[in-house]
Amino acid sequence: MSEVLLRLGVELGFQSVLVEPDPTKLLGPPRPHGDTFVSDLAAAGVDEHTDVVVTDHHRPEIGPLLKEALAAGPRWVGIMGNPHHEGPHLKALQDLGVPADEIARVHRPIGLNIGSRTPAEIAVSTLAGLLADRNGRPGGFDF
User: What ranges in the chain are assigned the alpha helix state H?
Assistant: First the structure.
């Protein structure tokens, strides 16, 4: 999933940084079109202009990662997952003592409801949702 987000994101003007703590899964050096791969969130340079998208909601470090992301003050934080099931990030963040108002900043599901099934469709939905949010739009057919 992250590979498709990286590929499409650059076409939409996003500067994409993949954070992968497992060094055996890093995708290699930065690409000519601007993707960067780092092993921890601090190296990603999260600030108030950053949108954080978590694609792997079953990782054991999801709680600490989201806690760190929220503390960095990004513009937006979201985690992929089925909207019909409670996300594991909720309990993980509660167990770490993250206040409810901070947990509420984590969007789930993310993206627009377009019936996405494939990784490319999910990436389009996610990126379209981020664009709509950045532009203060509802992201539907209403103008």
Answer: 2-11, 41-44, 62-71, 88-95, 100-103, 119-134
* 21, 28, 44, 65, 127 from 39: Cα distances, Å: 4, 11, 9, 12, 23
What 8-state DSSP symbol labels residue 56?
-
Q: Residue 79 forms beta bridges with which residues?
A: 54
pTM: 0.86
Helices (H), 12-61: 41-44
Token duo for residue 29: 């050096």
The tens digit of pLDDT for each residue in 47-94 reads 999 999 998 878 888 999 999 999 999 999 999 988 888 889 999 999
